[in-house]
Specification:
about 80% helix, globular, 20 helices, about 475 residues, mainly alpha
Length: about 475
């Protein structure tokens, strides 16, 4: 397969109307500039910024008033149809495990298995497991009391335990569905979420060990020792009926198993090893669809961690957990939909085809272009979700025009973009401030630790992803 952008004749004749290619490219540059201005300077919410810029871009590129609403609403609904359930179910599953004490159960069990000398590794592994359904900020805050307690008990400075944990959360949040970045990018590009999950784990696990764990330990050893701050440091009161380690681990692994089963059966059906009309295969494939897998896991978590053993009416408890989980992710879901609008406008106006033609002339590989655009967006405005979503919106028309048909190739392109979106976290990133303030470290120290780790995670995962793309896609 040609991994450079190559336009088939139909793609080259994208619906550009009478607008010349240089003008379309100028419109794209101005659209990105206005988008960054609205997000960074005006501080307008990314949902409104993306929607406004998409409208202005469509008008500037010649979309008629009669077609304008369809051009906006169509991509918005299509993107949300792929994303909303994944992010919503994943958030609720993570919240249930968090409030039930599941994170602490996993951490204490792993510390017991690894021993205190390997407590950083135990905390990092626990963060990997806990970071599958829970966003970085929520997961890291939940882990902080455990990190503080271990740091006080074992000694050696706070960063020795906190950085490996943060690095693990960073890898999972950046690369693995159901986190919003990879889910949104997959929805916009049209990649299979199950394959994105497989590629994310394939490149993410070695990236975690090298950048999230080993590099974190190295940076902690080279940084002035940080004491545990008097913030969230007291151990939480023990729950009366904490969940068992096996139950929590099973709930975290169940969606992974179901999704992998779906992907594997689809592959076997394609090769003819499994009949496509076999009822048992159809049922298992259905259960392994990512939204269904997360829904089943969430319902099971509700029963095992909330309903079972709960005294009194459970309706209020369930409603509170779900509301608390969904409220913070509504903004992310809307941003994702708006990113789909941006990509749809670029396709409908022919700007995407013009960008593809330009990238072809430069000779830049498609996967590298996606990574670099995401890095630029990340550095400019800070949010990894917005960076990955915007990069996917910009690249979707070019990917479509390139003739990329491989499902694995599309998954690799998505992972490459979200790897770029996590790179170079700095002072305009909310995660940068969350980690630095909860660890009580200076901005300079955060730049020399957290920023380095985030950059290493992005670059290493991209490099590994490119290898997979070049060899197998």
């Amino acid at each position: 397969m040609n991994h450079l952008i190559s336009l088939p004749a139909a793609a080259a004749a994208a619906p550009q109307g009478s607008v010349p290619t240089p003008v379309l490219l100028l419109i794209a540059v101005l659209a990105i500039a206005v988008l960054l201005f609205l997000i960074m300077k005006v501080r307008l919410h990314a949902f409104f910024s993306l929607t406004i810029v998409s409208l202005l871009t469509a008008v500037a590129a010649g979309v008629s008033a009669n077609d304008l609403l369809d051009t906006i609403v169509g991509p918005f609904g299509k993107t949300l149809g792929n994303v909303a359930m994944l992010v919503g179910f994943g958030a609720v599953l993570g919240r249930i495990i968090e409030t039930s004490g599941g994170a602490q159960v996993i951490s204490e069990k792993l510390i017991g298995l690894f021993g205190e000398k390997r407590a950083p590794l135990a905390l990092s592994v626990a963060s990997l497991l806990f970071g599958f359904p829970i966003f970085l900020d929520a997961g890291f805050i939940v882990m902080l009391p455990i990190i503080y307690t271990v740091a006080r008990r074992v000694g050696g400075g706070l960063l020795r335990y906190a950085l490996p944990s943060a690095g693990a959360f960073l890898v999972m949040h950046a690369l693995v569905p159901p986190h919003p970045g990879p889910v949104a990018a997959a929805g916009i590009v049209g990649a299979d979420v199950g394959l994105v999950l497989m590629v994310g784990l394939l490149v993410g696990l070695p990236t975690w060990y090298v950048a999230g764990y080993r590099l974190s330990l190295f940076l902690a050893s080279r940084t002035q020792m940080v004491s545990v701050p008097e913030l969230m440091g007291k151990k939480k009161e023990d729950l009366e009926n904490p969940p068992s380690f096996g139950v929590v681990l099973g709930l975290l692994l169940l969606p992974l198993v179901l999704i992998f089963m779906n992907t594997g059966l689809k592959t076997l059906q394609t090769t003819g090893a499994v009949p496509t009309d076999a009822l048992w295969a159809q049922v298992l494939v259905f259960l392994g669809n990512t939204p269904i897998a997360l829904l089943l896991s969430t319902i099971l978590a509700m029963y095992l961690l909330i309903i079972r053993g709960h005294d009194g009416p459970i309706g209020g408890a369930l409603e509170k957990v779900v509301d608390d989980a969904l409220a913070p992710v509504c903004s992310i879901i809307l941003i994702t939909g708006a990113g789909g609008i941006f990509g749809g406008v670029l396709t409908a106006t022919g700007i995407g085809g013009a960008m593809a033609t330009s990238l072809q002339a430069v000779g830049m590989p498609l996967i590298l272009a996606g990574f670099l655009i995401a890095v630029i967006m990340r550095v400019a405005q800070g949010s990894a979700t917005v960076a990955g979503t915007t990069a996917a919106g910009l690249m979707a028309p070019a990917i479509s025009a390139s003739g990329e048909q491989s499902a694995l190739g599309l998954a690799c392109l998505v992972v490459a973009m979200v790897a770029g979106a996590i790179t170079l976290s700095h002072v305009n990133d909310s995660g940068f401030w969350l980690v630095s303030r909860f660890l009580g470290i200076s901005t300079k120290t955060a730049l020399s630790t957290w920023t380095v780790i985030a950059t290493a995670v992005g670059v290493i995962s991209f490099a590994l992803c490119w290898v997979v793309y070049a060899v197998f896609a």
